[in-house]
Write a structure and sequence with these properties.
99 residues, alpha/beta, 33% helix, single chain
Length: 99
């Protein structure tokens, strides 16, 4: 698990502050570590996976507040780090610090 987070940190630090992604786009915000909500989004709008989903057709953008309140913060951020074609953006004032 630590290897995944170390790789994610490297990738996030390499990303520019403003990311351009082509339409169509699905935009999700403020998950707050709520795994049931994230799974509901995927059930309702489609899974971002290469085999059964539409990640090759539609970009997924997740905007801020991923892990701050819910009981499943580790599971949520792990799911967000895994697929390619997903963009993770910080939405709060100030710099996004990876720690």
């Amino acid at each position: 698990m630590m290897g995944l987070f170390e790789c994610a940190e490297v990738l996030l630090l390499q990303d520019p502050m403003v990311v351009q992604c082509a339409a169509p786009v699905r935009i999700f915000g403020d998950i707050h570590g709520q795994l049931p909500d994230l799974l509901h989004f995927f059930h309702t709008f489609g899974l971002p996976c290469h085999k059964a989903g539409d990640i090759h057709l539609i970009n997924y953008v997740f905007v801020g507040d991923f892990v701050d309140r819910g009981s499943y913060s580790l599971e949520v951020i792990t799911l967000l780090f895994l697929p390619q074609g997903m963009f993770i953006c910080c939405s709060y004032v100030g710099a996004c610090v990876v720690s």
